[in-house]
């Protein structure tokens, strides 16, 4: 949609994307659904930091595209995936910005997991 606002990060609403630099494991109901050494940490304003995992490091046969879409004026259009774990569907557990805005371009090709639907562990 062309009428949606596009906002740039500012000192009042900063957004940073940096390599996590540590091993990240994502589990759903105890099953490993993603594991990577190439995660990115996105820190937006005062929100909790989010780990963005390369899509290639997610167990592909557990992913099902969802029809859900949302919009963030700082990051762009988000698409979603359901996760299938032991025959159970966890709806919209993952989001991704397929063509993120330039300020967060590094997260292209990465996905993030909702903390209430997945356990994301970053090694110390």
TrEMBL record:
DUF427 domain sequence ranges: 24-116
Pfam families reported for this sequence: NTP_transf_9 (PF04248)
Source species, domain of life: Bacteria
PANTHER family noted in UniProt: CONSERVED PROTEIN (PTHR34310:SF8), DUF427 DOMAIN PROTEIN (AFU_ORTHOLOGUE AFUA_3G02220) (PTHR34310)
Name of the featured protein: Short-chain dehydrogenase of uncharacterized substrate specificity
